[in-house]
Amino acid sequence: MNSFRLILDISKTHLLSKIKQTVVAALGVTFGISTFIILMSFMTGLNDLLDGLVLNRTPHIQLYNKIEPSEIQPIDSDEEYADELTFIHSVKPKIKLERIHNALPLLSELRKNKKVLGATPQTTVKVFYLAGSNKLNGVLNGIELQEEIRLFNFKDYIVKGDANSLLKRKNSILLGSGIADKLSLDIGDKIQVMSTNGSFHDLVIGGIYQSGLAEVDDVQSFVSISMAQKIMGVGNNYISRIHVKLNDIEDAVPMAKTIESLYDVSALDIKQANAQFDTGSDIRNLISYAVSITLLIVSGFGIYNILNMFIYEKMNDIAILKATGFTGKDVMFIFISQALIIGFFGGLLGIGIGYAVSAFIDTIPFVTEALPTIKTYPINYNINFYISGVVFALVSTFLAGFLPAKKAQHIDPVEIIRGQ
Amino acid sequence: MDIILKTEHINKYFLEPTKLQALKDINMELERGEFVSIMGKSGSGKSTLLYILSTMDTNYEGDLYLDGKKMSHLSKNELARIRSEKIGFVFQFHYLLPEFSVLKNVMLPALKLGIESDSVIKKRAMETLDMLDIADQAHKKAYRISGGQKQRTSIARALINKPKIIMGDEPTGNLDSKNADKVFDIFKTLSKEKGLSLLVVTHDHDFAKRTDRIIELEDGRII
User: What share of chain B is helix, strand, coil (3-state, %, to 5)?
Assistant: First the structure.
């Protein structure tokens, strides 16, 4: 029998003969690891949900024409007043089309860019929804359906009916749920819209759209982009916004600057659009890590205590082993291997229980008006939590076992044997 | 003359609680096959001497030779190896590992030494137990057998690595006279038939009288 197997054999006998203590020590590890996994899965699940809520439907860069007064006024160009301080009261912006200048070439340029995952054009029309004598004002967004589904999970927000109806019928509309409620309309019903230039159009409801934000659902509906252009009475190059999704969200800020400098268009990046959101998400992450690490450290101390007691009880055994030819190192390895065995099985059970409880939480209903796609509490089954759980269990039990084992290594057998 | 154990000018000091010389200039020899007892009042230093001779205590002055080899100044690990190869111990208390079986207790020192295969060790352990009349207890846990059986088990453990010398610290101190006689007979047999050297600390006069030679200690000196 080689030395390693002999040491394991002795550890095993020790652990099995004090099975209650062993189990308590292992359960200490189990508790720490499972709470770590449950907490992290739940917290990050929730975080991802909230992130996704904003990030999935928010374009990384939005391109549009901003209406604002010109920075350079005619008087600034006049050399006569170059050294004077000039004031102009009541500056008004110049008339500017809402459409993006040269939108189609810009769009195809963007789509060719390697950093860009996709870019979709939108045409926005202000309309009145008419049903009977009711007249509600609203906004129609003309979209390219397939790209919206691919890039912004558009399908998740269609709570009733079929998003693809936009492709099947030219005059199909995906109606905002608020409007549908107010006008008591449902799929298959007809709705008439009046554009600001006075033309009427009949549309068929192919689906109900619900974003979860009441003020959006009360006004916004979706049609195909060609339908929106038709309602406006403009050509197919009339595009009022371009939404860009990048491969890496970190590229958003520099990319937006580049686009603004190259083209005659305003570019809003996601960092600017959702500054407060990032901070909240960071702090939530920080809190969940702080809590989990505290839990793990507390369970680490528990393991240290139990192993320490273990070794005090085994003083005699240590002396006997040393008197019969075992070295200090052998004795140290015996106790470290016991600690690691406790850590390994405790950790394994911990990830098992952690997974089971997470899976259970995953089935608890969590229905909220604001989140149409969520039915149960969100759980993030990230394999990294499980791996780091086991690694931490082993590292902490090793450290907790190392100090007592080191003490055992230096126990003088003569002192113990003569002390009796 | 075949000298198995020899000391030269061994001095031992205890520093706690006050400096005290426990052993004073100990010179002694032990021959192969000799059965020697060490006697003395408590505090005379007899156990202290035994632990130095056994190489477990390394904190002394002077030289110790075991089987012709100088032991002083060897490292703890080397000493641990020499101990398991050449010395067998029998303590006053049995000092078995309570949670292990009798057989396992006997086998452990040989398993640690790792020279022979498990099956050979097991066979010899059974033979030794058989010789000591406790083969029927082999698979019981060590804490389940009687005091006399425990002491015989620890003798079996001392013998498992075929040591050159057996050392005992009051091996019969905790036993009734019947069991003590049995242990003495076993020792005598080992010394006469197997040619083992025995060095036993005792304050049992009857036991000591029957050994080949008595070394008497008083105040850390051989008299």
Answer: 40, 25, 35
- Looking at beta carbons, which residues of chain B come within 8 Å of A413? 56
Please report residues of B whose CB lies closer than 8 A to that of A326: 80, 112
Q: Kindly state whether residues A297 and A358 are assigned to the same domain.
A: yes
Q: Alpha helix locations (H) across chain B?
A: 46-53, 76-86, 102-113, 118-131, 147-159, 177-193, 205-209
The residues, ordered by sequence, that sit 6+ positions from B36 with a Cβ below 8 Å of its Cβ are B30, B197, B198, B199, B200, B211, B212, B213, B214, B215
Which of A6, A10, A320 to probe the B interface (max B CBs under 10 A)? A320
Same domain, A107 and A219: yes
* Domain limit, last residue, from A272, A290, A318: A272
A168 lies in which domain range? Answer: 61-68+97-272
Chain mean position to CA B160: 13
Q: pLDDT band at residue A369, thresholds of 50, 70 and 90?
A: low
Dihedrals φ, ψ of B12, to 5°? -135, 130
A221 within some domain: yes
From A329, which residue of chain B is nearest by alpha-carbon distance? Answer: B77
A414 vs B51, B77, B109: nearest CB: B51
State whether residue A214 sits within 8 Å of chain B by CB.
no
Q: Are residues A285 and A238 in the same domain?
A: no
Q: Are residues A366 and A259 in the same domain?
A: no
Sign of CA dihedral A262, A268, A272, A277: negative
CATH architecture of B32-56+82-222: 3-Layer(aba) Sandwich (3.40)
Q: Which residue of B has its CA nearest to A316?
A: B95
On whether residue A80 sits in a domain, the answer given is no
- By the CB < 8 Å criterion, does A17 face chain B? yes
The total of structural domains in chain A comes to: 2
- Domain annotation covers residue A73: no
Q: How confident is the model at residue B1 (pLDDT cuts 50, 70, 90)?
A: low
Closest CB to A324 among B47, B76, B108: B108
User: Looking at the predicted complex, does its ipTM rise above 0.85?
Assistant: no
Closest chain B residue to A330 measured between Cα atoms? B112
Q: Which of A6, A18, A328 sits opposite B112 (nearest CB)?
A: A6
pLDDT of res. A174:
92
Looking at the structure, tell me whether residues A104 and A242 fall in a common domain: yes
Q: Are residues A268 and A290 in the same domain?
A: no
Q: Quick one: A305 and A371 in the same domain?
A: yes
- Pair B149, B137: CB distance under 8 Å: yes
For residue A60, what is the DSSP state?
A: S
**Domain map of chain B by residue range?**
32-56+82-222
Contacts of residue A27, Cβ cutoff 8 Å, sequence gap at least 6: A346, A349
Burial (CB < 10 A; 0-12, 13-18, 19+), residue A283, is: exposed
A5 has a chain B CB within 8 A of its CB: no
A368 touches chain B (CB under 8 A): no
Residue A131 in any domain: the answer is yes
Query: A115 and A48 share a domain?
Result: no
pLDDT at A52 over 90: no
| C-beta atoms of A324 and B57 within 8 A | no
Chain A: closest CA distance from residue B118 (Å): 6
Identify the closest residue of chain A to B83 by CA–CA distance.
A325
Which of A227, A251, A272 marks a domain boundary? A272
Nearest to A327 among B80, B85, B114 (CB): B80
Digit-coded pLDDT (tens) for B35-93: 888 888 877 888 888 888 888 888 888 888 888 888 877 887 788 788 888 888 887 77
